[in-house]
Amino acid sequence: MEPVSFSVNGENIKISRCPGVYFPSDDTFLILDKLRPEGRCLEIGSGSGIISIILARRGYSVIASDINSEALSCTELNASLNGVKFEVILSDLFDGIRGKFDTIIFNPPYLPGEEEEAKIEESEMWYGGTDGLTVIRKFLHGLPDHLNRGGKCYTVLSSLTDIYSLKREFNFYRFDVLEEKSFFMEKIFAYSLSLI
């Protein structure tokens, strides 16, 4: 299949569609539009690799990780298509990650659904648990061990979840809404998080 070309902030990026791998969508571009990276960067859940590719093209030291080995192969393929190289790590969130970073990006599976939906093929790309917050909660518990003081995390949350309870639970983070986008049934929000 022919790679798809994207223009992101004036940069042309080629991305191949890979079976079983999250392809760039509105939430991806919401993060990319507001991403202001600094220093050493980590992308959790790299999917197709578009975010890590853009960071590497801009000269940042970047590590891409994903729980899905097919996603990592896709990330490496797309990195090669775009003439960049960076480290990729098979990891369930922070399990295989060592060290601290100045910028961490995570576009989590954030949609709520019934438990049976978790059994649907490729549901790990969108299913965030019955409340939509299961994956992001686990991520936020591990984030302080990997985010440098003064560093930022960029992520996406949905209005279909209880964002306010998440903010109360993780009140040691500063949550800043960077942008929101409305759809028929929901709004998605790009957030930057920093440790208080």
UniProtKB/TrEMBL annotation:
Keyword Methyltransferase: yes
Spans traversing the lipid bilayer: none
Gene3D superfamilies: Vaccinia Virus protein VP39
Coiled coil: none
InterPro entries, A to Z: DNA_methylase_N6_adenine_CS, Euk-Arch_PrmC-MTase, PrmC-related, SAM-dependent_MTases_sf, Small_mtfrase_dom
One MF annotation (Gene Ontology) recorded for this entry: nucleic acid binding
A biological process term (GO) from this entry: methylation
Start and end residues of each Methyltransferase small domain: 30-161
PROSITE patterns given in the database record: N6_MTASE
One cellular-component annotation, GO: eRF1 methyltransferase complex
Entry keyword annotation includes Cell cycle: no
Keyword list, A-Z: Methyltransferase, S-adenosyl-L-methionine, Transferase
Family the UniProt entry places it in: Belongs to the eukaryotic/archaeal PrmC-related family.
UniProt cross-references to PANTHER family, sorted A to Z: METHYLTRANSFERASE N6AMT1 (PTHR45875:SF1)
Protein name: Methyltransferase
Organism, as annotated: Cuniculiplasma divulgatum
Organism taxonomic ancestry: Archaea, Methanobacteriati, Thermoplasmatota, Thermoplasmata, Thermoplasmatales
